[in-house]
Amino acid sequence: MNLEAKDFWRGIDKLAAKHGLTRSGLARRAGLDPTCFNKGKRTQPNGKPRWPGTESIALVLHATGETMTTFIGLMGKKAARP
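Given the sequence above, the corresponding structure tokens read:
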């Protein structure tokens, strides 16, 4: 499995949605700057993808009571349509 930065951002977005939060709301709940998960901060000025920090991921998991296993599942591609 080759993971990319966008997979981690997808997991963060889905985690926020699962808990009825915006990206900013999730960041605030975790004690982070509310803008740290904004889409504009997901790429560097040179266009290269920016990865979320491991500490940020740990803080949102702690704040939501979720496990890393759940987060990894949320990072997956969109579910297949029935």
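Helices lie at 5-18, 23-29, 54-64, 68-75. Try to locate this feature in the token string yourself.
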